[in-house]
Amino acid sequence: MSETATATAPRLLDRRELAAWRGMVRTQVLLAREFEAELVRDHGLQLTAYEVLMHLVDAQDGRLRLSDLATLAVLSRSGLTRLIDRLEREGLVVRERCPSDARGYFAVITAKGREQVTAARKDYLDNVRARFLDLVSDEEQEQLGAIWTRILQALEPGLKP
Amino acid sequence: MSETATATAPRLLDRRELAAWRGMVRTQVLLAREFEAELVRDHGLQLTAYEVLMHLVDAQDGRLRLSDLATLAVLSRSGLTRLIDRLEREGLVVRERCPSDARGYFAVITAKGREQVTAARKDYLDNVRARFLDLVSDEEQEQLGAIWTRILQALEPGLKP
DNA sequence: AGGTGAACGTTGCATCTGCAACTGTTGCGT
DNA sequence: ACGCAACAGTTGCAGATGCAACGTTCACCT
Questions:
Q1: 3-state secondary structure at position A143
Q2: H or E segment at A34?
Q3: What is the set of domains in chain A, with CATH numbers?
Q4: Which residues contact A137 (CB under 8 A, 6 or more apart)?
Q5: Which positions fall inside the HTH marR-type domain (chains A, B) (predicted)?
Q6: With left for phi above 0 and alpha for psi between -120 and 50, is residue A69 left, alpha or beta?
Q7: Measuring CA to CA, which residue among A129, A125, A127, A117 is closest to residue A44?
Q8: Could you please report the per-residue DSSP string of A137-156?
Q9: Dist. CA A156–CA B11, nearest whole Å
């Protein structure tokens, strides 16, 4: 009963832990807000739409199975369904049946989609550099990468190669 | 035209930058998902509700101006209004007029709110430790804290002391 | 073959969120 | 004092998202 707070208080975080954890949460949320606002303003793309299109341009043949896309974009499958609906309405992607699995569909990026995401990507990456990468030294970047790999490894036991 | 991609391709991120940036985004999103799911399941609190209550218990007299709370929780003011509505309906906070400014309100945490957030905090912090802090050495935590401070400083020029 | 459980994608429903517009209040400049 | 811009909080509205349930198809096992 020598603690300062109530007797049932759980062990809180010390200064170091607090700075590492809360700082990350706040940084990520604020950066995401900022980047999304610019994407919407300059390119008419939500962050999730940008992420999906980005994964598509980077994929083989510009196509990906919907469920893979959901995993990559960290969206529920229903959320992805409706996002693809919107993108298809805007002519940025099309759905194509999967020849080898009648249950499945591919999302395929269109030429218009490629143009739009390429333009958006330039501004987005400029932003990432200006607000994040330029403030972190090469050595720190290496270290960050190692940390994320460690944590993600623990979070996602079985992940594609 | 010796590049592999189209001629208009912007400079993308190299391996190191990619690992540092994408890793952070993915880590944060997956951790938030995980933590929120557990908070909802075990304590009936959304992540934003937890954050608001947490800021309130940590605040002087368990009270904070609504707009300060919105800033702390990184929510729009309308979003916060409705969140406080919900929390008030559940008896976890109450609104009180601000004596010195007739435009303003305080959100004040109730005894019930304190109980609930204290219980939730224990599990939440256990989770943060298990999935994040325990995987990061003390030195790395120090370094992370320094990085976030640097970035947040640039993002939020004028911040309260 | 036949059957059963799992996977894929979609839909109904409820919830959460932000933007823009609005009301009321403050404080500053004249 | 007065007027006017800025601020605090709320509300209408539209959009995005997840969960649970569903129909269809696949894969495996006997």
A1: helix
A2: helix A15-43
A3: 33-134 (1.10.10.10)
A4: none
A5: 1-153
A6: alpha
A7: A117
A8: -HHHHHHHHHHHHHHHHHH-
A9: 30
H helix intervals, B44-137: 47-58, 66-73, 77-89, 111-131
Residue with nearest Cα to nucleotide C17 C1': B79
**Span CA (B100) to C1' (D3), Å:** 23
Q: Which value, in Å, is the radius of gyration of the alpha carbons in chain B?
A: 20
φ, ψ of residue B65 to 5 degrees: the values are: -65, 145
Distance from CA of B102 to the nearest CA of A (A): 30
Return all residues near A10 (Cβ < 8 A) that are at least 6 apart: B118, B121, B122, B125
Q: List CB contacts (< 8 A) between A154 and chain B.
A: 131, 135
Sign of the CA dihedral running A111, A42, B79, B35: positive
With an 8 Å Cβ cutoff, is A135 touching chain B?
yes
pLDDT category, A125, cuts 50, 70, 90?
Answer: very high
Cβ distance A63 to A156 under 8 Å?
Answer: no
Q: Which amino acid does the sequence have at B89?
A: R
Q: Span A127-156, mean pLDDT?
A: 95
A74 touches chain B (CB under 8 A): yes
pLDDT at position A75: 96
Across B27-47, average pLDDT: 94
Query: How many contacts does A have with B, using Cβ atoms within 8 A?
Result: 160
**What residue has token string 């007739």?**
B102
* B79 CA from D6 C1′ (Å): 21
Query: Which pLDDT value is given to residue A74?
Result: 95
Q: Is A37 on the interface with B (CB under 8 A)?
A: no
Judge whether A159 is closer than 8 Å to chain B, CB to CB.
no
